[in-house]
Amino acid sequence: MPRAGLTPDRLVAAAADLADEAGFERVTLSALARRFGVKDASLYTHIRNLKDLRTRMALLAGGEMIDRIAAAVEGREAGRDTLAAFAGAYRAYALEHPGRYAATQIPVDQDLLTGSPAMRRTADITYGMLRAYGLEEPDLTDAVRLLRSTFHGYCALESNGAFGAPRDVQASWERAIDALHALLLNWPREERNPDA
């Protein structure tokens, strides 16, 4: 019989909180069970295993993150204004919720991503922002990968205190957004062979 008060949603939310407090890698079924004052076995009524829990955390955090990004970009003028709002919301979430953010970086089964409304919304917002720069496939996917790599790398270095130069970190961030905007405006187009 399921323990009163335990639900998959409560467990995943508690695991996400634990990840923010202690670190994503420290989220274990035992640690989560201790948080609720139950035995590990009590959790298996609601989640299959640690991989299932972490996947659910990734989907929860991805949904929270895109909600924040969507609110930030709503009503913005296409181009740098939207790019800066998108990037700023991404960075704020990553720095404020390090454990949740780490969950968004794990590999998740493609079928789960395809079936997730939050992940579809993420694609719609991200690709919509980039289409405003006149990009089409395969350039869209390449640009998404560039932005994600830049945002993730910057956030990872910043959160670890790895920017040691006296230059203000926010000023460097703003310049990075300027550079990305300029690059997207002048994206190097692949030569298309019309006879191919």
What does it look like?
There is one protein chain. With 196 residues, this protein is mainly α. 66% of the residues lie in helices and 0% in strands. The protein is built from nine helices and no strands. Helix 3 packs parallel to helix 7. It is globular, with a radius of gyration of 20 Å. It starts with 7 loop residues before the first helix and ends in an 11-residue tail after the last helix. 26% of the residues are buried. The model has no long low-confidence stretch (mean pLDDT 93).
Short summary:
This protein is mainly α and 196 residues long.
Poorly predicted tracts of residues: none
From the alpha carbons, calculate the radius of gyration and give it in angstroms.
Answer: 20 Å
Q: How confident is the prediction overall: mean pLDDT?
A: 93
Strand content: under 5%
Distance between the termini: 62 Å
Summed up, the helix count is: 9
Helical content class:
55-70%
Strand segment tally? 0
Quickly give the structural class.
mainly alpha
Shape: globular
Give a quick account of the main beta sheet: strands, pairing sense, barrel closure.
none
Give the topology string: H per helix, E per strand. HHHHHHHHH
Keywords: DNA-binding, Transcription, Transcription regulation
InterPro entries: Homeodomain-like_sf, HTH_TetR, MT1864/Rv1816-like_C, Tet_transcr_reg_TetR-rel_C_sf
Pfam families: TetR_C_33, TetR_N
Domain HTH tetR-type: 5-65
